[in-house]
Amino acid sequence: MDERRFVVWGSSGHARVLRDMIGTNDRIVALIDNDRNAEAIQDDVPVAVGIEGFRALLEKFRSDDLRGLVAIGGGRGADRLEILDLFAASGIETPELIHPLAHCAPSSVVGKGSHVMAQSVLAADARIGRGVIVNHGAVVDHECNLADGVHVAPGATLCGCVRVGENAFIGAGATVLPRLHIGAGSVVGAGATVTCDVPANTVVTGIPARPVST
Ligand SMILES: CC(C)(COP(=O)(O)OP(=O)(O)OC[C@H]1O[C@@H](n2cnc3c(N)ncnc32)[C@H](O)[C@@H]1OP(=O)(O)O)[C@@H](O)C(=O)NCCC(=O)NCCS
What we know:
Blueprint: E1 5-9, H1 13-21, E2 27-33, E3 47-49, H2 50-60, E4 66-70, H3 77-89, E5 97-98, E6 103-104, E7 109-110, E8 115-116, E9 121-122, E10 127-128, E11 133-134, E12 139-140, E13 145-146, E14 151-152, E15 157-158, E16 163-164, E17 169-170, E18 175-176, E19 181-182, E20 187-188, E21 193-194, E22 203-205, E23 210-213
Parallel strand pairs: 1-2, 1-4, 2-3, 5-8, 6-9, 7-10, 8-11, 9-12, 10-13, 11-14, 12-15, 13-16, 14-17, 15-18, 16-19, 17-20, 18-21, 20-22
Antiparallel strand pairs: 22-23
The structure holds coenzyme A (COA).
């Protein structure tokens, strides 16, 4: 199989995970970070800075020979989507990455540029949009629907038929009960148990989860 060449935007913890997920035939040829003090995650690949670094990269490589990964985690779904759009506009393919130890039901759907990590589950008819992260050990149960830019942190559980709006962030180990709706841009704190719908742009924590800020 031909070597695939990746450019990774973001050089921190999530980039390390993606580096270890790509195949042995694949290679990261460029890293970009907006922070000029970002650490290199691979000795032989320096970190280029921001949009200028990206433009310089396009002079060095053919864009149709590159694949783009966005390694921006946390609740920064809007930033993930913006960089995915930049890659696409530059002619760089943005594949989804699914760890071989994740379980994705045959009827589940994974959007472009999304990452499904080891030990996570996408059950029957679950749908995740673009630029979504389903992190280690997270469960997205049957018929859940996650909009673009959502991040489900490690060990979180979305019970069946949960809907999550664009760029929402579900914290580590949180549980969302069946058929609930988490509004766009909202944050569910780590360890929370959500028992009723969460409006857009609201932070909830605790058991049962209650709004702490908007
Ligand atoms: C809920 C959250 C977004 C709040 O962040 P924040 O606004 O920076 O909050 P702070 O850390 O300033 O804490 C504010 C208060 O909320 C409490 N708090 C923070 N997170 C909490 C949580 N998940 N559950 C219950 N209480 C929490 C703090 O103890 C503090 O209480 P105090 O005022 O009595 O001292 C954040 O703590 C959180 O849970 N993020 C999820 C992190 C995660 O899962 N990361 C995974 C990365 S892959």
